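Input/output pair, single chain:
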Amino acid sequence: MTTMMTTKLGSNVDVKALGKVAVLMGGASAEREVSLMSGTGVLQALRSRGVDAHAFDPSQNELGELRRDGYARCFIALHGRHGEDGTVQGALELLRIPYTGPGVMASSIAVDKIMTKRIWRAEGLPTPDWRLVGSVAETTDALAALGAPMIVKPSREGSTIGLTKVTSPEQCAQAYALASRYDPEVLCEQFIEGEETTCPILGEGTSAYALPVIRIVAPEGNYDYQNKYFTDVTQYHCPSGLPEAEEREIQRLVVAAFRSLGCRGWARADIMIRASDRQPFLLEINTSPGMTGHSLVPMSARASGISYEDLCVGVLASATMDTPAGSTLGT
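Output:
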């Protein structure tokens, strides 16, 4: 088997030169179960291409073991807190081990939906109106201001965890209680009626580019945690079937959103297309996308001719650090 391969991520990859690789999976977040599925898929894919890859669960092992055991780089397949919020990225910076995905600052901002929306709004990128709330009364006030339906969710969780679609003031107390179980910062967001889409981004800086858009059709519009990962009733359309101009505009927006947060490597942005005027709105960006059998980045990659295995190796090859290897840290 040759150790050289070409991917659409922009380089020839000598898998032997990647060294010993840790696939970080599991962790202690609310998304542990999905992370284990993602990590297992990535691990198998890397090994199938001849990469010296090993599973590593930060909730079971100290991160310092990565350096002790001679790991040259990490593929982050962790989701949620302590996986895509800048904390593990910061630890790997201190250990001087390159890792996949965005760096410390971009990761910590992107996992915070409120900070993300503030930056997007400042950059002139369309995102639904919102309110940050700290009580049931403020949630009720937000419903009056934003209108029904309204989405209530934790600011720093993913995978629709803790999310409620509120249609009346009577639902506000339960919705706030659920969201605040996961995060003291609760986001109330204007609901955009229309088509749900998502689009992955690869690369960095001016070389970042979008993969094909995926249009999501969930049963009764309910794209919740169960339908996202554990059922086959949700329909995914890739090619999206959207008019070409709409697809190109979504791709333009997600690349702008990715770059505005300083992301690199890869991510996936979620977008709603408002039915009334076909205006797209950015919802959030995921900097450690799922890689399970139901995940969307592999689906989009396949539509552009990139296999799951090539995607994994290409993303791994892009592993880097905020402070490049070989440079000296300031005193």
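The longest strand covers residues 194-204. Residues 24 and 76 are 5 Å apart (CA to CA).
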